[in-house]
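Dear support,

I submitted the protein below through the web form. The confirmation email said the job was done, but the results page showed an empty box. After a refresh the structure appeared. I'm attaching both so you can tell me whether what I see now is the final result or a partial one.
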Amino acid sequence: MELIDFIIRILAATAAGGALGLERESNNKSAGLRTHTLVSLSACIFALISLRVVENTGTGDPTRVLGQIVTGIGFLGAGVILHRGANVQGLTTAATIWSSAALGCLAAFGFYWELAAATVLIIFVNTAFKKADLWFLKDREKKKNSDKDNDFLE
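What the results page shows now:
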C-alpha cells in the first residue's frame, strides 16, 4: 500500500468517526468527538497494519484483526454503560462507539461509498430515532402514572 492510500484511509476514518462524535457531542453524551474519532482512527490503523503484514508476507488473515477489534471495542463500550437500579444509561453511546470502530474498518479496506452510507445512516438512527424514543418514553410515563392512579383507587 502506498503512503497516499494510507493517508486517505486514515483521514476517511477520522472524518467518519468525527461525524459520529459531533452528533454525540451535540447531545452532551459521555463519549463525544475525541472518543469516536480516536476509536474510528485506531480501528483503521489496526486493520491497515494487518493488511500490510498480509501484503508483505503473503500469509495471514486480516479478518482475524477485525474480530479482535470487535471484541476490544466491546470492552470500551461497556465502560460507558451505567446501571442505576432499573435504569440503564449509555447503551446508545456504547453502540455508537462500536459503530465508530466499524467505520474505521470500512475506511481501512477502502470501502469509501460504504463508509459514507454507513456514517449517514448511523447519524440518522441516532437523531431520528431519538424522537421515537421520546415518544415511547412519554407513552410509558402515561401508562405508569395511570397504573399508579389505579393502585391508589383500589
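Response: this is the final, complete result; the empty box was a page-load delay. Residues 112-153 form the longest helix (42 residues).
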